[in-house]
Amino acid sequence: MLERLEIESFLILADELHFGRTAERLHVSRARVSQTIRSLERRIGAPLFERTSRTVRLTPLGRRLHKEVEPGYRRVEQGVARAQAEARGFAGVLPVGYLGSATGEFVMDVARTFGRIHPDMEVQIHETQLSDLLGPLRTGRVDVLVTHFPVAEPDLTRGPVVLRVPRMLAVPANNTLAKRQSVSLEDLARGRVFACSGDVPDYWQEHLAPPHTPSGQPVRRGRSAATMQETLAMVGAGQGISPVGADVAVHYTPRGVVYVPFSDAEPVEYGLVWRTAGETARVRAFVEAAAELAAELGTAGPEAAGQKADGPEAAGQKTGGLKITESQEPHAPNTPGPMPAPASAADR
Questions:
Q1: 153 with 130: CB under 8 angstroms?
Q2: CA distances from 297 to 99, 133, 164, 321, 348 (A)
Q3: Residue 105's closest CA among 308, 321, 314, 279?
Q4: In DSSP terms, which residues pair with 225 in a beta bridge?
């Protein structure tokens, strides 16, 4: 492999045809240029320049090598320069992924705000699926992902929580739990809890539905589902139960499914994640904008705005424009009840 100084010395000398001017452009001594060219010619096995006391010119072999090497080297230079310019500024494209309808609306709000601040940057929005929770990040399909926490991966950076919503239990309408005003984590032992199929970390599954209740009763696993719609379809068919966020109760109301709030479960959290090795100025700016919007809307709780939270049971936790309290009645099958749809930032 040729060294960078050899390539640059060859190309500049071919352009200048003068060792002194070549040395000046490279910021090295004339002797260093002569030494480098001789080393390159030994690598090639033949002279690349004809030298006299008065002139320097390319040999036929030198002209052919220049014709082959120069375009490729210029493309490399231009590519590096563009990458550096994008890293320093915000021009370019930022692909952002989201999981779930509430996070999709939040990402659109951030993108609108961000676009006004950075008009040269295009935010491309992609929906992701439970069955491939972190895959879009690792394949480079998205550079930032707003997803269901927890996320604890060595190659990924976990950013701030931007949505925090009460946890609810999706149950069949004919289940005895459907008539309750609330349920507890102990009630997870009263039915089969659906698992997520695909590439989902074990710790994520256990956070959503632990293997045992607080008193130690085993939580039985039901069938696996790849999407939220598939999970709720099986709940409606009476095949099991599933913990979900209150945002799911707003956006998905299939026939035969009732959502009952938990009285003792921590809220569901959604936050930002990105590849640690892929962090750029654009990524940092988008994360900052998302955190600021979450603090403004109160969607991540008071602590997002620098205030002390009152805990997960604080009255009126919000998701977007949706405010849900634990005193809310569980709604009937296929009826979203009194919960309003989340409003966009533009509506506030």
A1: no
A2: 19, 26, 12, 8, 9
A3: 321
A4: 196
Give the single-character DSSP code of 331: B
The DSSP-derived string for 186-240 is GGGGGSPEEEEPSB--HHHHHHHS-SB-TTSPBPPEEEEESSHHHHHHHHHTTS-
Q: What is the largest CA-CA distance in the chain?
A: 101
Which helix (H) or strand (E) is 126 found in, with range?
Answer: strand 121-127
Residue type, 289: A
Structure tokens at 7: 């390539």
Q: How many CA within 13 A on the CB side of residue 269?
A: 19
Predicted TM-score (pTM) of the model is: 0.63
SS3 label, residue 18: coil
Over the stretch 241-285, which tens digit does the pLDDT of each residue have? 999 999 998 888 889 999 999 999 999 999 999 999 988 888 998
Beta bridge partners of 181: none
Both structure tokens of 246: 């209150």
Torsion of CA 126, 132, 133, 135, to 10 degrees: -70
**Given strand 156-165, what is the order of strands in its sheet?**
121-127, 92-98, 144-148, 268-275, 156-165
Q: Are 262 and 185 in contact (CB under 8 A)?
A: yes
